Amino acid sequence: MIYTLEGHDLKHAVEEMLFHLLPTANLTRADTVGEDGDWCRSLLSEQGGEAVGLAVACIDGVTHESERRARVAGLAPLDYKRAVTELVKMTVYDAVVPTLAQPPVWGSLTGVRPAKLARGLIERGMSRGEAAAYLREHFYVSPERTALTIRAAATAMELDKDIGPDDISLYVGIPFCPSRCYYCSFVSSTTAQSGHLIEPYLDTLCREIAETAALVREAGKRVQSVYIGGGTPTTLSEQQLARLLDTLEQNFDFSRLREYTVEAGRPDTITPGKLRALRAAGVGRVSINPQSMDDKVLAAIGRRHAAADVLRAYGEARQAGFREINMDVIAGLAGDTAETFARTVDTLIGLAPENITVHTLAIKRGADLTDKAAAAAQRETVSRMLDGASHALQTAGYGPYYLYRQKFTAGGFENVGWCKPDTECFYNVTMMEELQTILSLGAGGVSKRVDRATGWIERTNNPKYPLEYIRAADRLSGGKRKLLFPRQ
Ligand code: SF4
């Protein structure tokens, strides 16, 4: 699709909205639009203290035009930018939506944290009902997604009460997996490619743990939750896992820890010995992620395990004493249908894990689905999968407790964590809702300092890939020192 910007240069705003509405479009900016093909013009001007946004979109030969105005006279530069950005996005939304078979369930919301937006509305004085009405009427969010958002916002507000000014959480990343799933969007290397890096990676990680723990002590912070994710942390051998867990325990004060999670992830990496090591270290929550319980789908996505391995790993985790288990599934995988996906969800509900997380497959820009009919069909299938899962989970006593959206998910849907009563994953909520400072250790780690009084967030990133990370061993704690001691 060709698009033009006329009277403004808000490329990001226009592209974000176009990708939200047309996730498989290949966007190209041009000076003018031609006669053929799909195109969108976005225009902005000012008249008498008002900004005037205009958009004209032509899709499959059908043209729609929209215009909106906003009072901008006297606005401070930041508020002015916010107002015209919204104007530009909303006019593009208004012009494109009539050309779609159905409006998006998230309306014009493009952000990845809808519950954070709702929380902001409630904290600024709206009742939950008023915030819900605002989401529906201002952003055109569907009633179902609005209800989901308000429940997630309420959970976050409840957990927020337990966070003190010096409480922080830790994330530890292990970016290795036994094989690569075809849909994977994480930075993770297979053991075949990078197995030789695991030991030096652990050396660097143990050093980063010791240095970070010293900073945390010096800053007087307390660790409230730990999440070891990846990749697949249980790709590590029993000895390597024990070394990591021991290093964490010896360096940090875990006496106030309320939650300790390890993403065991792939059942083909889980053994009774590793599960015992996790329990012995105080890990209380594990994630065992089938993604699908259909062997054909598992084979198609490059997982080297069958549904039976998931059942075995789940049984072993219960036997090892885990009382909180999460299981992830993904809607929209290759070869999956609404019926086989429903069977997956039913099988997991039958196992009765405390948490079930329903993800939507993220598609990459310009990926295979350039065929609009195929994209629409996939959207329809994923929609049925999610609606069916939502109904089955609620009937079985699960409630939604956190949600987030990824850019470019199939059909513009969302990922939702469901839980049985009082089993919310604290880390997932605080991380997604940006409720507290989180220090991230390991390759690709993004640490965030959250100023709880103002909401201001500062970040520092570790190098993305294992080799870069190992080479940066001497420089890893500098960014975290700046985060923890901003005035030094
Ligand atoms: S297990 Fe997870 S991190 Fe590893 S390749 Fe598969 S999707 Fe990616």
Structural write-up:
This protein folds into three domains: 2-99, Double Stranded RNA Binding Domain; 114-159, no CATH class; 162-479, tm_1862 like domain (pyruvate-formate lyase- activating enzyme, Alpha-Beta Horseshoe), CATH 3.80.30. Helices cover 41% and strands 22% of the residues. The strands form four sheets. Strands 14-15-13-12-11-10-9-6-16 form a nine-stranded mixed beta sheet, sandwiched between helices. A five-stranded mixed beta sheet has the order 2-1-3-4-5. It contains 16 helices and 18 strands. The protein is α/β, with parallel strands linked by helices and 488 residues long. It has helices at residues 11-21, 77-96, 114-123, 128-139, 143-160, 191-194, 198-219, 238-251, 272-280, 295-300, 307-319, 338-351, 372-395, 426-433, 466-471, 476-484, and strands spanning 2-6, 28-29, 39-47, 50-59, 62-71, 167-174, 176-177, 189-190, 222-230, 259-265, 285-288, 324-331, 355-360, 399-404, 415-419, 437-441, 446-450, 457-461.
